[in-house]
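[audit] Reproducing an earlier prediction to check determinism. Same input, same settings, fresh worker. If the tokens differ from the archived copy the diff job will pick it up downstream; this log only records the rerun itself.
[audit] input (81 residues):
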Amino acid sequence: VEFLEGMASSRGVQVIATTHSPAVLEALSEPTMHNAIVCGRVPGTPVTIMRRIGDIPHFKEVAKRRGIGHVFTSKWLEVAL
């Protein structure tokens, strides 16, 4: 994660990656986490929502209090989308 963030910053490029790993997400710097995009399905529909994590109300506070792993492995994030 540090390598990818460093390369993106030094080259002025955007990195697109996907993961389901809370450990990878915990390794993100705060600015990268803030700008990361989360995808989630709308129950009962074929619709997928994409939202910038920094735009999700209370994400920062909940992640700080409960941990990134909890946010991504509980249903909190799906409800917040």
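[audit] rerun output stored. Observation attached for the diff report: The chain has a mean pLDDT of 91.
[audit] end
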